[in-house]
Amino acid sequence: MPAYLYETISSRFPSPNKAFIENHDGVVTTYRDLADGSARMAGVLMALGVQPGDRVAAQVDKSPETILLYLGCVRAGAIFLPLNTAYTPNEIEYFLTDAEPRIFVCEPRSREKLEPVAAKAGVAKVLTLGVIRDGSLGDLFAAAPPKFVDVARGPDDLAAILYTSGTTGRSKGAMLTHGNLASNALTLVDFWKFTSNDVLIHALPIYHTHGLFVATNTLLLAGGTMLFLPKLDADAILRLMPRATTMMGVPTFYTRLLAHPGLTQEVTKNIRLFISGSAPLLAETHREWMARTGHAILERYGMTETNMNTSNPYGGDRAPGAVGFPLPGVSLRITDPETATPIAQGYIGMIEVKGPNVFKGYWRMPEKTATEFRPDGFFITGDLGKIDERGYVHIVGRGKDLVISGGFNVYPKEVEDEIDAIPGVIESAVIGVPHADFGEGVTAVVVRDRVSALDEKGVQSALEGRLAKFKQPKRVIFVDDLPRNTMGKVQKNVLRDTYAKIYS
Ligand code: AMP
Question: Which residues make Cβ contacts (< 8 Å) with residue 207, sequence separation at least 6?
Fold first, then answer.
């Protein structure tokens, strides 16, 4: 039995000379380089004593070799564990202690700082890999043979552990199997009609499920080409746009590009599909994009633990503000968070999903895992949502962001939508802040446009008559920007901390 995920990928390889990745520095990795390079990586890992099931952790900058390392792990039967490049040594120590990898790979420049951390966590071997194939792993890679007999792995074996972003409590390691990754990518190739003619603009990080699995696995299974950029850079993306057929981005990509005068119908005319996910795309952004380029952005919804769950249709109506329908093979239901019983269409509740896409559980947390699954196998996503009369799923926000004021549930999204509709408002975030009378006070943090004279009273009076009294914000705070993480998610936990004392 070969390594299931790699076998699924390699059985669909296009011509070996076809470009798999064109890096921003001009270096091209062909599909032959991919096959040889992942064999080299697998060989290096095995020679260093990596056994099937061992973890290989990496905190490295984005490069084609990082993808080769990921596939090398898969072929060697190891578990790839990518780490956010923003993590501090203190955070890295937690991940290494929790995951106990056999090998830790870091940037050459970080070696001095991270070696003691790895030693403290009991990691036997530290290697380095830089973006120009430098570092000790770069050297071993260059010297290794381009052939490897894959270690047998089935669909139920682990291919990767991705730690969740952990906005509340410690982040947890989501265990993803070969079958989870292969099945979801095959579904996406089909659903989004990817072929070997596709050229994807890839400016996402590759330590996260979006850039690593949604983008990379889908293009690998289609035999397409990725244009790698180190990060979101509107000028660079627009330069690549005429050569590309598709782009995957978080909503920030779309707002940044809309703010660029170079975004025109002409520059996007070769694109067949713009995809957005990882955070809510404002309906307004969807409409502006349509008006400016003539393209309807396709919004989809997924998470580290589940891969992709829903998508707007490829052929049908891509509804602004909705995340579409459950993907083929995925079951989705909305339940009452308290009683776990399914609730009627149109009402807000907890989104639960089941399917071959759903992870195996949290690394070394069997009890936590058990509480996140229903007895019939549905995973409790933690996202609140509803299904509209046309069957489209709408995300209302994370359950933990729900505000309970005076005993009433306030869904932040409903208040944010009303605030965003006020002239002069660019965007808003609604949070619950401790309040002596109400338990939590509904609080709005608002970004207004530079010329707007809108003030707190103006927002409050605009909402009168539009929202029930208990939903109206007791305080409105104006800021220049909302705090966001690299995946474009508004960090409501940061806002809650910043404004924790405004009612006391
Ligand atoms: P992550 O595990 O970092 O990918 O984050 C997953 C979370 O991002 C989900 O549970 C949702 O809360 C959020 N998310 C992903 N896609 C969307 C979307 N299209 N609209 C709204 N929220 C989304």
Answer: 59, 82, 83, 84, 85
Evaluate if residue 1 carries a pLDDT over 70: no
Query: Torsions phi, psi of 63, nearest 5?
Result: -160, 160
Instruction: Name the pTM for this structure.
Output: 0.92
DSSP 215: I
- 292 exposed, middle or buried (CB, 10 Å; 0-12, 13-18, 19+)? middle
Structure tokens at 315: 């052929």
Atom number of ligand 1 nearest to Cα 397: 12
Cα 352 to its chain centre, rounded Å, is 18
- What is the DSSP track for 376-412? TS-EEEEEEEEE-TTS-EEEEEEGGG-EEETTEEE-H
Atom of ligand 1 nearest to the CA of 300: 19
Percent of the chain with pLDDT over 70: 99
Q: How far is the CA of 398 from the centre of ligand 1 (A)?
A: 9
Tell me the Ramachandran region of residue 107: left when phi exceeds 0, alpha when psi lies from -120 to 50, beta otherwise.
Answer: beta
Q: Are 81 and 152 in contact (CB under 8 A)?
A: no
Cα 279 to ligand 1 centre (Å): 5
